[in-house]
Amino acid sequence: MTVSYTANVASAKGFGCFLKLLFRWKGSIYKLVWPDLFVFLATYFSLSFTYRVLLDRDQQRIFEKIAIYCEKYGTLIPVSFVLGFYVSFVMGRWWEQYKNIPRIDNLAIWVNSSLIGNGDKERLLRRTIMRYACLCITQCFVQICPRVKKRFPTLEHMLEAGILMEGELEILRQIKENLPRNETQFYPQFIPIVWATSMVTRCRREDKLRNDSVVKSIIDEINKIKDQCFLLLSFDWISVPLVYTQVVTLSVYTYFFSCIMGRQWIYSEKIGSSGSDSGAKGKYGVEELDLFIPVFTVLQFLFYMGWLKVAESLLNPFGDDDDDFELNWLIDRNLQVAYLVVDEMHSGLHPQLLRDQYWEEVVPENLPHTVASEQYKDEPPISSTANVIVTKDEGEIVSPPSLRSIVNLNLNDPPGTPGLHKRGSMRSVRRQRYGSVRSNTSINSNSRKGSIGGSKFSLFKRLISRENSSKLSLPDNQQGSGDVFGSSMHVNEVIPELDENLVTIVSNKHDDEPRKPTVQEIFARQESEVPSLIFECELDTPKLTAKSEEIHLLDNLSPTKDHKQKSSNSHPV
Question: Taking Cα atoms as reference points, which of 101, 103, 129 lies closest to residue 114?
Fold first, then answer.
């Protein structure tokens, strides 16, 4: 079972919250490392005794050269790099295996709430479905956990435990005989799942389940258990690549093998010109302290070797280590919870429907505290911007840059032209910035048609801006650049302006003012020239149609014979 110490570190107050954990033995680093540390120290002390006592001076010099060589090149082994990546990978794999351990709770709740009835048959159906699910989980655990395998070595032991019946055992034996020899070890965990789904469909045929949606939800929960079991089997079949494990093991053990020689205390002598020893000096120019026990080397061994032992124990969390998952307890728990939910709680062990004590208050105040918990009563949390205060002057809205473009747009008009409404101008500028969907999709990309449309819209703008319009002259160069009366507008820019501002201009007119022609009245006869231009003007005034006065107006606008002929032959929009 996993060693739990959360209760011992519930509060970090005081000195050394984690220091109290260093004196625990079960699941500790000492229990994992002490055999390797014993071998390491025994070898180290043996070599040290040999160097100090048994070797002569010439042999000691050879020993010193070997020690210096091991100390120099042993540090090139990337122990921290290789070991760090390996342990992080194993930790992620260990947590994924824990999250995929199947639990029976969701399926039990669904079966209890869907398969309703207190009769023996309904009770038998509920208990049988849950027993098949528990049997599938147990058979999966038998294949991946040695502890569970020792508890249920054969199917007969499951029969004695009560999670398998005699007839079901015979069916499993027959299926096992019909399967190929190399497939017999993979079949058992899926057969009870098939039985459980068949039992659910049987309940639906007998109208024990309300609708197909409930059937689907229950089968989804059963399939979820099946998928989790298969994933656990996949973790057991597919391990961490062997080469990665070998690289990590070799790096750690070879590093400490070099430390056995490289960390030995040796005589560091400077030989003078006369051949006599001039003094024992160490690496840093002073005589080294002769510690018979290598303290920091032992600490380094505990850290690196303990890191490796962590990876070894977490690589298979279903083994016999202290921190492995206790699946035997989980088997008992699944069966107990399943029968409790679908049987005992289904028979009527439910509380009565009563009003709570806060029925009149609707929203209660804080729940009461005890004397022991009163000291932990705190203020409710606040957001990080709760204390940020914006003054009235700082809260003034700054005019957006688009207003300047509106002023510049009005300055480009000739003198006497009334300005556009602010609301319409802002929308026009905004549509120029982001693009108009209607304009971009309804206007042809042909440059000739675009220039014709630009000149006509400029003319229309002058037409509706005059209070007393008597005669209008259409410029001869209609097929020119589209610059009329000193105003140059592109089609993409004018269309949204007409769509929105025409409604505002016409709706604000008084009833006594003379009626101005609309887009449909003027350009109804020009549809053949600009076929892709589509305008949808929704006016507050009654809808106008083209009559004889409109034809007369267009005749005055167009001095050419061809234009008059087109106007007389066309129909109103």
Answer: 129
The answer to whether residues 235 and 90 touch, using CB atoms and an 8 Å cutoff, is: no
**Alpha carbon distance 195, 375 (integer Å):** 56
Tell me the three state secondary structure of residue 460.
Answer: helix
What span, in angstroms and rounded, lies between the C-alpha atoms of 564 and 533? Answer: 21
Dihedral angle over CA of 539, 541, 542, 544, nearest 10: -70
Distance CA(312)–CA(32), nearest Å, equals 10
Report how far residue 498's alpha carbon sits from residue 536's, in angstroms, rounded to the nearest whole number: 10
With residue 277 as reference, give the H or E element that holds it. Answer: strand 277-280
CA distances for 1 relative to 235, 308, 411, 564, angstroms: 20, 21, 84, 99
Q: Is 270 helix (H, G, I), strand (E, B) or coil?
A: strand
How far is the C-alpha of 196 from the C-alpha of 130, rounded, in Å? 8
| pTM of the complete model | 0.63
**205-254 residue pLDDT tens:** 999 998 999 999 999 999 999 999 999 999 999 989 999 999 999 999 99
Q: What is the Cα–Cα distance from 493 to 435, expressed in whole angstroms? A: 9
Dist CA 124 CA 267 (whole Å): 84
| DSSP three-state, residue 10 | coil
* Whole-number Å distance between alpha carbons of 47 and 33: 21
Contact at 8 Å (CB) between 179 and 204? no
| Regions of the chain with pLDDT less than 50 | 270-280, 418-456, 467-507, 509, 525, 527-573
**Rounded Cα gap, residues 189 and 342, in angstroms:** 22
Number of other residues whose CB lies within 10 A of the CB of residue 524: 19
Contacts (Cβ under 8 Å, ≥6 apart) of 499: 438, 535, 536, 537
- Buried b / exposed e across 229-243, counting CB within 10 Å, b at 16+? bebbeebeeeeeeee
What sign results for the dihedral spanned by CA atoms 115, 121, 127, 131?
A: negative
DSSP helix/strand/coil, 269: strand
pLDDT at position 458: 56
In the chain, what's the furthest Cα-to-Cα distance?
Answer: 134
**Torsion sign, CA atoms 157, 158, 164, 167:** negative
Tokens of 323: 């921190």
Nearest to 94 by CA among 418, 321, 346: 321
Instruction: Report pLDDT for 497.
Output: 45
Rounded distance between C-alpha atoms, residue 228 and residue 84, angstroms:
29
